Amino acid sequence: MTGSSTQGIRTVLHPVSDLAKAKAMYAALLGIAPQADSPYYVGFDVEGQHIGLVPDGGPQGMTSPVAYWHVEDIEAKLAEVTAAGATVTEAPHEVGGSRLVATVTDPDGNLLGLIQDR
Known about the structure:
About 20% of the residues lie in helices and about 45% in strands. By secondary structure, it is of the alpha+beta class. The protein has an eight-stranded mixed β-sheet, with helices on one face. Strand 6 (about 85-95) and strand 7 (about 100-105) form a beta hairpin.
């Protein structure tokens, strides 16, 4: 394969209907307090993994958990996966801290995320 390398899944976002209840449950499950805690996002960093809680699926309208692959070059990876049959559902955009995110669907309609840290 050619193109940008994929560094693996290190982020999984979960849509939640009640952020306070979800935060308490995930804190109990993971055994730590969240490192990011706001009304629009709660995030836990555990052993190289990031678990994010997104109230009501956020602006992207998530209805199920989304795994995010960390990549070195998001544009190159998008070109590679769309050439192989994926469809872009959310174009790359900055979400803070110079981080770019995008989502695609695979040929079966599964939602997958890409993250590039600059």
